[in-house]
Design goal:
Distance between the termini: 62 Å
Largest sheet: 3 strands, antiparallel
Number of strands: 5
Radius of gyration: 19 Å
CATH class of the largest domain: Mainly Alpha
Number of domains: 2
Number of helices: 8
Order of helices and strands: HEHHEEHHHHEEH
């Protein structure tokens, strides 16, 4: 397919898709939030350690390829980012969940795909997973591929076709990134994060008070 992505771009794009499907209330993502998502230790293979400059360069590259867009959300003064993969491909939620998991964890069997996508969508059967993967493989251009069964394995695995993942931290140009957070933006983002945490704490206090009142 055109515009093959490197490993960093694959991780960034997958994290945007994941957060939209699992925590839509916190989506789109700021540069800081997206960096944390990329470096998350759960649901990731491999675990990476990107800095904001690297992620900013990846975002700039993905914007050039038409896969990411910068936006400002209501009540926020910090730029945030969202994927635009649906502008390029006609995909269902199940399609998106499968692609996301293959991009986050690498090649997987049918059973692994079904188990790992549970937090984003539900497949009623293994046959439904296989049918969805087949549809992605027959997409124009193909988005997944069924790999030949490897020696010592009982099942075939499937992989995404957005990139081979061979390029890592040195994949982007060393020129200054087009997306950078100023000190003021970082302060604003921290203020918004503190406010969000305070609101969550107040909600927890209220819930606990209501719970205690029952006894």
């Amino acid at each position: 397919m055109d515009n093959v992505l490197n490993a960093g771009e694959v991780r960034i794009l997958a994290c945007l898709i994941e957060k939209e499907l699992t925590t839509p209330e916190y989506y789109p993502l700021s540069l800081n939030s997206l960096t944390n998502a990329c470096n998350q230790k759960s649901n990731r293979d491999p675990v990476v350690s990107y800095d904001e400059t690297y992620v900013a360069r990846g975002l700039a590259s993905l914007q050039e390829k038409g896969l990411v867009r910068k936006t400002l959300t209501s009540g926020s003064r910090v730029s945030k980012f969202l994927h635009t993969i649906l502008d390029l491909f006609d995909l269902s939620r199940q399609d998106m969940a499968i692609l996301c998991e293959l991009m986050l964890r690498g090649p997987q069997t049918l059973g692994e795909v079904r188990a790992h996508t549970e937090r984003m969508t539900i497949f009623e059967s293994m046959e439904e997973v296989e049918t969805t993967l087949q549809g992605l493989a027959e997409h124009d251009p193909p988005l997944t591929l069924k790999m030949p069964r490897e020696s010592g394995r009982k099942e075939c695995r499937y992989k995404h076709l957005f990139g081979d993942g061979t390029e890592t931290l040195h994949a982007f140009s060393t020129e200054p990134a087009a997306i950078q957070m100023s000190s003021e933006e970082k302060i604003r983002e921290l203020e918004e994060e503190i406010l969000r945490l305070r609101n969550e704490l107040e909600e927890l206090k209220k819930a606990f008070t209501e719970f205690k009142s029952q006894f």
